[in-house]
Every structure is written in structure tokens, then in C-alpha cells.
Design a protein that fits this description.
heterodimer, A: alpha/beta, seven-stranded mixed beta sheet, B: 579 residues, mainly alpha, three-stranded antiparallel beta sheet, 24 helices, 11 strands, 42% helix
Chain lengths: 442, 579
């Protein structure tokens, strides 16, 4: 394996290679086909499946359950998936929140490590790449950001607060400050093409030197250090690609105004920060700044109190533990779950307002809403509440409720990849993966 | 984001487990059976079979022979934000703290410099790039004006690269590196950079050097050791960086580079001599403060808030005074030579200024100046009776025996306590005017699920009940006479009942387990990783040296840098070489 830029350019063997010379053609003109996008959304600590899953009915004829009613306007763009388990989340080291978060999008177990979950069990980070990062690496979109990770009030730095991984033990922290994420997304848009060109050439000259350093070190250091430098080099390559894209930005895309500086970790600003991040995500997908993105609402075992909903007694994790007979706690928990549903509905609404050819951005996107648990008070990793939305550019037919009998979620991850154009029949831990989830696509 | 969140998650969970366990796990209809750890509880108070039992250090000394080169792994260490800022200050004279806006470190064991946690995501790479551009643009004219050659002189570009490169990459540059960087001067024209071309060249060089892995990491290679194929002896420059980042949180100075060049750092005694010199420099005070701030969580004091309904006297200004008191005590113990770190928990004196003296009710101290005042030990002595720690381990409206006990266990005795089992429904107690805090926490002792862990925390924390949530003395709480009896259990040598935090401090000060914990915490900070089995000899030796040295912290640091673990690294075969 090599960490020199040369190897990236040549597309040398190995998962980290990002051959530049085989880039797909840039997004076609107005009359052409719009690209497919993938957007992952997480909310933590489970839900109440009895209020989340349609009761009775058939695959296409069913009543929307209470927690999905905020999405009623998009009923024909939803696929509700029941009976898909985090089978791999029941394997390997760690406690349930850790295993749930780590496996949700990687489909793999955690490594051994020193982070402790609530039951005293320990684990490290996830042991392989998450589905969004994998999709971006396979598709190599010619966009400013290979992927974009945004979060809302993600305070913690541990496995229960990371879902996205660039590889084994390489968690990707989400950007939680809307001001920073806006600045980053629209950087350079106020510069002329000439200024941007000059900036790029200067940066490339400087990075030429940095790449030479990586290349020289590769021959000197031992394996663990090399792995570490390799991660760095991959990040640098992604950054470099992005710098190149700064110059090639479509001129039709107007930057959103940068929001006012706010205390973005304050509980009272939770909803507002969420809105800003969703607006930015929609704009980033619409402008083709990126085709693969994720939005993380808080963390598992978060300490966010939903004060803005008038829930002052418990934080999100505490509420999820309410006993089934504790009516007061359940009522608050349902209000919190309903809040998340309304945010998801807002996201779909915004995406459906962006017209693309005959349809909308939503039709060309696969939105996946997942959760590391199905139920908070039992820590169940079975029957996760999966909600798919959008058309994935025609790959996904909406208006359906699918029920599986304990299918491993790796199969769903395979189907997600297939839906956005990555051909594969396995993902994550091969022991549990059986292939695409039958009947989901096509 | 404040620093308080780093341990906030565990702490918050503990707060939740405080009163309750009011309901057991609720089985979800149709859901899988709860995980095994939520299984049946035995009747009565007997601990569950899988109950948590704190780890106690080995009572038997580890046998270690001289020349036993079993040292733990060493990995390339990326700079923390603090190290980056200090290095930029010393390298460029730029005090703008550019790293404050960088992504936070992922922490491990309470320290932000754990090498395994410090990765570089695209976000980091971008932040390094932007900082390098800003810093280089600002520094270039000054660097040019202080060069040792005239810019028009032939070879001045190469001379600049060599001289600046030595400091930026903390080692002499190889000829091919110099040639490559000098090449950047030749790019200035084609890049159409405005202004003086030589200055622009310097700017490019600095920009490239600051983004280089040679700057951002401490990468060590070392040289082979006769008869020890899996060991490498670090070269002088590698040792110099280990020294300066340990003691100063920054790059080496010119004298340290000179010592490296002269081969003085090839022997343990040479390394020790330089360590002693570094410790004399004022930068050591700030550098080592980073260790104490993180170990004792003083860096979280700025986040303390109090509910004004219960603590109307709390004002944010107090936080700075509290932290200053503790930092001054530590600085006195480490640097004054009048005392040692052995006094940390039972010092019969403290440091106050007029405002803090007023807060404590200490008479005859006025004005801004900080003075050392005696304590008689009846109410207070040592760090555990500082308002800083007492407030840090309390909650907004009341004290927390749990947090206080947890602080003692984890920070001072090195026995981590897990958060409560997630299946427990927990309800944090509110202050109750009809009960004492001690009574509010009674369920922890009677409910076996809670008692599993709380038996190791609450009985210690109860001993602090004479201090309210902002660290003021109280004889009564809600009209009840305060009961400040506590008990330490399951330790190597500190078990037993005590009364009040001052007595607890004296008890712990005499404990070898506590003294051993000091050396363990320093080890984690110094080596940027948690201890592993291979480190047992190093740890054992450091502990004995610490005790034999009279718990002199500077002497302990010198022992750390003399150790094999500090001067050698384990050699791991390159990937391709593996069978």
C-alpha cells in the first residue's frame, strides 16, 4: 500500500486508491439526467414501534401510524421497512448503544477498545467503512465535497456518537456549528474565477511539497504509523479534490446567507440548528456540492433536554428509558419522537421543492432514516425503525410497507448501495450479509 | 463548546442513577429478550454474579530486572490543539492561538493527547491548510527581516529553508528536502504572487512546512540496537521533541536542538540534565499545568453553573478564583521546592486573595495579591477541600456524593467506575427541604442494582457533606445536622471510616494506591496512551522512584524521561515485511 499522491493518481491497488483519471462525466446540462444522491439521517435511542409501524393493511394499502403522520404529504415517496435487525450489532465487543451506533451504517462489529457503555462493557470504534463513505468512494462524484457530515448538538467524542466511518477505526465527526458548515460549504463563492484559479495553483504547489513528505515517510515508518499517515493522506486527497472543485462550481448556485453566530450547543437552539443544517444539506445536494451526506441528530445516550418542547425533567436518553407503564414519561417521549418525525417531514418538504427535470430533488435522492436501537427501554437491536424516502432516481418505488422476518440489516445496506448505483452483493460483515434485501428495489 | 462535555456524559448518567431504579427494564412487546446483563437479580443485597468490582493495583511487586526492555507500543503523535498553538507561538512568535477553532480531540482516559485518538479527517486537513495559509502570510515578512543572510546573497533561500526547517520539523533537513522546498521560491513568478518575490517564497515554504506530516506529527524512527531486534533507540532530535512536548507542550528551543546535535541526548543522564533545564524555564509551568488541569479536571471549572434559586451567591467570577487557588497550590507543590506533590491532598495551607478569602471567611486578607494562608485541618486541608473540586463535583442545586466519590475513585485511586446499567430507569432527585442529601441517596445502598457500583462511590462522597455545592462549609443542611461520616472500601491500603473531606485527604495522602495512581496518570499523559501489560515494569519503577524521591513531582518527571520507555521505541515490522 502506498500513501503517495502518485499512487492515488495512478489508482494503485487498495481501498484507498482514488483514481483521478476515471472521473465520471460532470453532471450533464439542464436537459440531462440529474445525479442520484444519498442522504443518511439518524436519531438516537430507539422509538416506539407500535406507534411507528403501520398496523395491518397490505404492502401498498395501509394507514400511516401516528409517528409517521407528519410525512402524510409524502406517503407515496415512503418505504416503511419492518423486521430488519442489526444482526451484526448483536456480535462483537461493546454495549448495546455502542454496537448499535457502530454497526448501523457499517454493518460490522466494533473493535476492542476502552470506551465504556452503560453496562460497563468496553469497545473501540467500528471496524469498517460506512455505507455513505463507501458509496462516495465507488461513485467518485465530481463534486466539491465527496461527502458532507452535519450534526445537531453532537457533544460527545466516543463510539456512541459516531455513525460515519472512513474505514476501520476512522470515525468522522459531524460539523455541528451551522456557521462553520455554511462558511465551509460556500467558501470561495465570492471570489472571481481568476482569483480562484490563482488560489488553486498556489495551493497545489504547496501540496506538491506536502505529498513528497508523505511519500518519503512511507518508506521509513513502521506499519501502525503508516496506517495513520495513510488516513491523513486520504483526507488530504479528498481536500485537494475539493479545492479543485472550488474552481469548477456551477455558477447557477447561489450561496445561502451565513446564519448569525449562535450558541449551537444550547438545548434551546436545538430545533433552529437542525433547521439550518437541513437547509444547508438540501442546498448542497441541489447545487451538486455533494451527492452523499448525513445528518446526525444528537448522540446515543445524549444529555440533550428538549426544553424547547417544554420537557425539562429528562434528557433524550433518560426519556427513552421510561417504563411502559410510566404514562408521564411515555407522553414526553412520544412528543420527542414526534418532533423528530416533523423534522424529517420538513427535510422531505424542502427536497421536494427543488425541481429537477420532471421531478424533484427528492425523487433523485435516497433518504435513509435509521436509529441504533428499536426501543430504548429494552435496548433491542432487532426490528430497527427504518424509513426510506425519495425515489433514488427511479430505483425505489414508494408508498409501501415491507415486513421482513428478521433480515440482517447488511442486506438493506447492500440495497441502499444498489439503489444509488453501486453494484455489490455484500457489505460489511460477510458472515451475516446474505445479499440485497429481497423485494425492496425494482 | 466548553471543555465540560468531555466527561459530561458519564457524569450526567451518574446523576440520573441517583434516586431511582424505580422500575426495572420494561420488556417491549415483540422485541427480543433484554440482554443478559439485565437478568434476574438475586434476592437481598448480595452482589450479582456479574457485579462490578473495582480494579485494585497489584499488591505484589512486579519483578523487573535491569535491561528488561519490555516497553509498550509507541505511535506517531499528532499535535493536540494546545501543542499546535504553543508550537506556533515558539516557532513564529504568533500568539493568535489558531488551533482554538480546530476540531476537538477525541479523548481517552481523560487526556486529550492520546495518540490513538488523534486522527486527521478531511475537516482537520482543511483546518491545517487554512491555518497554514494565514500564519505563513503573517509571518513571512518578519521571518525575512530576521534571516541570517541577505536575501540577495546566493544560497540565502537554501539557508533559510535549513534554518527554519530545523525548527519547524524539529530536526535537520535532508538535502533532497531542502532542494524541494527551495524549489518553491522558483514558483513565485508563475503563481503571480504579489509583493516581494523572496518574501512570497518564504511564505510558500512556511505554508508547506506547516502542513507537512513532519510538522504535524512527532514521527519517530530511531536506530537499531545491538542484540535487540525489536527495539529502536530514539535519536537525539526525537528525544528532544519528546522532552519539550512533555514539559512545555511545545517545540524544543535552540539549546535543546544543540544538545541533540551534540549527542547529549543519547544517554539517560544527558536527557535528565536537559529535562531539569526545561523544568527551570517558565514555559514548564504552563506546560505541566495542562497535565494537572486534565488529570484533576480543573479545565472544566469554567463550565460550572449554579441554580440561582439555591445558590444566589454564586457568581461566574468565583470560578476563576477557585481554579486559581488550585493551580497555585499545584505550582507551589511542584515548583517552589518548599514542598512536594505528597502534600496535594493534605496541605495545611492554601492560597487566597482578598475576594476568595472573603468567600471562605478567612480573615485579614485583602486586595488582589495572592497569599499563602495556614489551614488547621479541622475543616479544610488539601485539594479535596478546595471550592474548585467541591463545586466541580456538585450539581446545580445540590451536592452530589456520587460525583465526589467518583472523582476520588477515578482521578485519585485510578479505579474507573462504569456508568449505570442502561436498562435502569433513573430519576434524578431534586433537592428536598424535608430531607438531607444523604437521605436522598439512600436507595443506592438498598437497591442491589444500584449498590453494585454505588457502594464504591457514595460512602466516600458522603464524607464531603459538610461542603455545599459551591464549596462553603455547612454545619446544617435543611435544618438537619450534617452527617459527614464516610468510608473507603476495596482499596489496597486506604480502607476505613473517616469523618470529613479533610480527614479523607490525609488518609489518601498516606495511601500507596493513591501515590501509584499519580504515576499512572502521568504515564498516560507522557506517553499519549493508556498503560498495557508491557508497561508494568516501567510503572512499577516509576512508582517506587516517586515514593523514594519523597513524592517530588519534578524528580518523577526526570525519572520518566530517563526510563527505557521514553528513550526507546518498540519496532514493529513494516506491513510488507510481515510473514
Amino acid at each position: 500500500m502506498s500513501i503517495s499522491r502518485r499512487s492515488f493518481l495512478r489508482g494503485a491497488a487498495g481501498a484507498l486508491a482514488l483514481p483521478l483519471l476515471q472521473l465520471p462525466p460532470r453532471r450533464a446540462g439542464a436537459a440531462g439526467k440529474y445525479p442520484k444522491r444519498l442522504l443518511l439521517v439518524t436519531t438516537p435511542n430507539g422509538t416506539l414501534k407500535e406507534l411507528w409501524s403501520p398496523q395491518g393493511g397490505t404492502e401498498t394499502s395501509f394507514d400511516l401510524p401516528p409517528l409517521l403522520r407528519p410525512m402524510a404529504a409524502f406517503r407515496d415517496k415512503l418505504v416503511i421497512v419492518d423486521g430488519v435487525d442489526l444482526a451484526v450489532g448483536m456480535m462483537g465487543p461493546g454495549g448495546p448503544h455502542q454496537r448499535g451506533c457502530g454497526s448501523l451504517f457499517t454493518g460490522d462489529i466494533l473493535t476492542e477498545g476502552e470506551f465504556m457503555d452503560g453496562d460497563g462493557r468496553r469497545a473501540g470504534w467500528a471496524s469498517s467503512i460506512s455505507v455513505d463513505q463507501f458509496a462516495a468512494r465507488q461513485l467518485r462524484p465530481n463534486t466539491r465535497f465527496q461527502t458532507l457530515e452535519l450534526g445537531v448538538c453532537v457533544k460527545e467524542n466516543e463510539p456512541r456518537s459516531r455513525y460515519v466511518y472512513r474505514g476501520r477505526e476512522q470515525p468522522v465527526p459531524p460539523e455541528v456549528d451551522p456557521v462553520a458548515s455554511y462558511r465551509r460549504a460556500f467558501a470561495g463563492m465570492d471570489m472571481s474565477q481568476d482569483e480562484l484559479q490563482k488560489q488553486l495553483r498556489r495551493r497545489q504547489s504547496v501540496l506538491d511539497s506536502v505529498w513528497a513528505d508523505f511519500g518519503a515517510l512511507e518508506r521509513k515508518v513502521a506499519a501502525p504509523d503508516r496506517a495513520k499517515l495513510q488516513q491523513h493522506a486520504t483526507s488530504l486527497r479528498d481536500l485537494e479534490l475539493r479545492l479543485e472543485q472550488l474552481v469548477a462550481m456551477p455558477s447557477t448556485c447561489a450561496p445561502l446567507p451565513t446564519p448569525a453566530v449562535m450558541a449551537h450547543m444550547e438545548e434551546d437552539n436545538f430545533e433552529q440548528v437542525g433547521r439550518l443544517q437541513m437547509d444547508l444539506l438540501v442546498m448542497a445536494l441541489a447545487c451538486d456540492l455533494t451527492r452523499v451526506a448525513s445528518l446526525q441528530w444528537a448522540s446515543a445516550v445524549n444529555t440533550v433536554r428538549f426544553t424547547f418542547l417544554g420537557i425539562n425533567d429528562y434528557d433524550g436518553h433518560g426519556l427513552s428509558h421510561g417504563g411502559d407503564s410510566n404514562d408521564a414519561m411515555q407522553a414526553s417521549w412520544i412528543r420527542m419522537l414526534d418532533f423528530y418525525s416533523r423534522q424529517f417531514a420538513y427535510l422531505l418538504e424542502r427536497m421536494s421543492q427543488v425541481e429537477e427535470d420532471e421531478g424533484t430533488l427528492l425523487d433523485n435522492t435516497l433518504v435513509v432514516w435509521g436509529n441504533e436501537l428499536s426501543r430504548g427501554n429494552s435496548h433491542a437491536l432487532t426490528d430497527i425503525p427504518w424509513l426510506l424516502a425519495g425515489g433514488a432516481g427511479g430505483a425505489l418505488r414508494g408508498g409501501r410497507h415491507l415486513t421482513y422476518a428478521g433480515a440482517p440489516h447488511n442486506d438493506l445496506l447492500v440495497s441502499i448501495l444498489n439503489a444509488v448505483g453501486v453494484a455489490t452483493d455484500t457489505f460489511g460483515n460477510r458472515e451475516v450479509c446474505t445479499g440485497p434485501l429481497a423485494g425492496l428495489l425494482g | 463548546m466548553g471543555t465540560g462535555t468531555k466527561r459530561g456524559i458519564g457524569a450526567a448518567l451518574l446523576a440520573l442513577c441517583v434516586a431511582a431504579c424505580e422500575e426495572g427494564p420494561a420488556p417491549a412487546p415483540g422485541a427480543a429478550a433484554p440482554p443478559d446483563y439485565s437478568g434476574a437479580l438475586p434476592d437481598g443485597g448480595a452482589p450479582r454474579a456479574d457485579a462490578f468490582i473495582p480494579e485494585v493495583p497489584e499488591p505484589e511487586p512486579v519483578r523487573c530486572e535491569p535491561g528488561d526492555f519490555d516497553i509498550g507500543p509507541a505511535v506517531a503523535r499528532r499535535m493536540t490543539r494546545a501543542e499546535y498553538d504553543h508550537t506556533i507561538r515558539d516557532l513564529l512568535g504568533d500568539d493568535s492561538h489558531p488551533a482554538r477553532g480546530f476540531a476537538r480531540e477525541e479523548e481517552m482516559l481523560g487526556f486529550d493527547n492520546n495518540a490513538g485518538m488523534l486522527q486527521v479527517t478531511p475537516l482537520h486537513a482543511e483546518q491545517f491548510l487554512e491555518a497554514a495559509e494565514t500564519l505563513a502570510a503573517r509571518a513571512a515578512p518578519r521571518l525575512v527581516s530576521t534571516m541570517s543572510c541577505l536575501r540577495s546573497a546566493p544560497g540565502c533561500d537554501a539557508q533559510f529553508v535549513r534554518e527554519f526547517g530545523l525548527r519547524a520539523w524539529r530536526r535537520p533537513l535532508a538535502d533532497d528536502e531542502v532542494a524541494r522546498l527551495v524549489g518553491l521560491f522558483g514558483k513565485v513568478a508563475e503563481l503571480e504572487m504579489p509583493g516581494d518575490p523572496f518574501t512570497s517564497g518564504v511564505q510558500l515554504v512556511v505554508e508547506a512546512m506547516l502542513q507537512s506530516p513532519h510538522f504535524l506529527y512527532r514521527i519517530e524512527v530511531g536506530r537499531p540496537v545491538e542484540g535487540q531486534p525489536d527495539l529502536r533507540l530514539l535519536d537525539g532530535y526525537e528525544v528532544a521533541s519528546r522532552l519539550s512536548y512533555l514539559i512545555w507542550q511545545s517545540m524544543p528551543d535552540d539549546a535543546l536542538f544543540a544538545a541533540a546535535a551534540a549527542g547529549e541526548l543519547d544517554t539517560a543522564e544527558g536527557v535528565a540534565a536537559q529535562a531539569r533545564r526545561l523544568l527551570e524555564d517558565p514555559k514548564a509551568r504552563e506546560g505541566l499545568q495542562a497535565f494537572f488541569d486534565q488529570w484533576l479536571r480543573l479545565d472544566e471549572i469554567g463550565d460550572i453553573e449554579r441554580d440561582p434559586a439555591y445558590y444566589p451567591d454564586f457568581v461566574p467570577e468565583l470560578r476563576d478564583l477557585w481554579r486559581e487557588e488550585s493551580r497555585r497550590l499545584l505550582e507551589h507543590l511542584v515548583f517552589s521546592g518548599e514542598s512536594t506533590l505528597g502534600d496535594l491532598l493534605d496541605a495545611p495551607y492554601t492560597f487566597v486573595n482578598g475576594r476568595l478569602a472573603e468567600f471562605y471567611g478567612i480573615p485579614d486578607v485583602t486586595g488582589e495579591a495572592w497569599v499563602k494562608v495556614p489551614l488547621d485541618g479541622t475543616q479544610r486541608n488539601g485539594l479535596l477541600t478546595h471550592a474548585s473540586i467541591l463545586a466541580l463535583t456538585a450539581k446545580a442545586a445540590m451536592t452530589s456524593p456520587v460525583f465526589r466519590g467518583k472523582f476520588v475513585r477515578e482521578q485519585l485511586l485510578c479505579t474507573p467506575i462504569p456508568p449505570p446499567p442502561p436498562e435502569i430507569v433513573v430519576v434524578p432527585p431534586d433537592p428536598d427541604p424535608n430531607q438531607s442529601t444523604r437521605d436522598l441517596f439512600r436507595e443506592h445502598a438498598t437497591n442491589p442494582v444500584c449498590a453494585d457500583c454505588h457502594r464504591y462511590m457514595d460512602p466516600i462522597g458522603f464524607g464531603f457533606e459538610s461542603f455545599d455545592a459551591i464549596g462553603r462549609w455547612r454545619d446544617r443542611e435543611n435544618g438537619f445536622l450534617v452527617d459527614d461520616r464516610g468510608e473507603v472500601t476495596s482499596t489496597l491500603d486506604a480502607d476505613g471510616e473517616f469523618r470529613g473531606a479533610a480527614e479523607l485527604g490525609r488518609k489518601l495522602a498516606a495511601s500507596a494506591q493513591q501515590q501509584r495512581c499519580v504515576t499512572r496518570q502521568l504515564f498516560r499523559f507522557a506517553f499519549g496512551r493508556g498503560e498495557v501489560n508491557a508497561d508494568r515494569c516501567t510503572l512499577e519503577e516509576l512508582f517506587h522512584q516517586y515514593v523514594e524521591g519523597g513524592q517530588d513531582f519534578r524528580a518523577l518527571l526526570v525519572e520518566v524521561v530517563k526510563s527505557d520507555a521514553f528513550r526507546y521505541r518498540k519496532h514493529v515490522e513494516a506491513e510488507g515485511d510481515a510473514p
